[in-house]
């Protein structure tokens, strides 16, 4: 069934608002995903501040241009638009994790990150970066390890100085 021009304009307007306010965008190809899996995926994206939308590629392309984000790259198959307003990396991580789990049914095609269109490989790589909290924990672990080593050296020097006196 054909969509009326007014309905298309309304869809483009909604997509434009989502794209304009998004910190990051992921394009994904989905095929043969059950309704339950799509609902689960939408829930996961909502949890990280994202929104999963399915629309015609021409409407997504028009909204992308209207939002001032450039031309949409050519993509094959059914395309989902995933926009994120909060943690950009969590959006890519969620998409990447789901793509690993559903290899045949869900594939990352690319995205929009820090003002630039990115390819599929870059989008997948962004999904592998640990969360902010995990990175802070890793830095703290390294710092504490170095402090422990320093304190051990100071303690050894102190005990050596006591035995020499």
TrEMBL record:
Gene3D superfamilies attached to this UniProt entry: 3.30.70.1730
Signal peptide residues are none
> Which parts form a coiled-coil structure per UniProt?
none
InterPro entries xrefs: Ribosomal_uL10, Ribosomal_uL10-like_sf, Ribosomal_uL10_bac, Ribosomal_uL10_bac_type
Tell me the SUPFAM superfamilies matching this sequence: Ribosomal protein L10-like
Q: Which GO terms describe its molecular function?
A: large ribosomal subunit rRNA binding
A single GO cellular-component term on record: ribonucleoprotein complex
Pfam families, per this entry? Ribosomal_L10
Its BP terms in the Gene Ontology are:
translation
| Family (UniProt) | Belongs to the universal ribosomal protein uL10 family.
Purpose of the protein = Forms part of the ribosomal stalk, playing a central role in the interaction of the ribosome with GTP-bound translation factors.
Oligomer and partners: Part of the ribosomal stalk of the 50S ribosomal subunit. The N-terminus interacts with L11 and the large rRNA to form the base of the stalk. The C-terminus forms an elongated spine to which L12 dimers bind in a sequential fashion forming a multimeric L10(L12)X complex.
Protein name per Swiss-Prot or TrEMBL: Large ribosomal subunit protein uL10
What is the species of this protein?
Candidatus Ryanbacteria bacterium RIFCSPLOWO2_12_FULL_47_9c
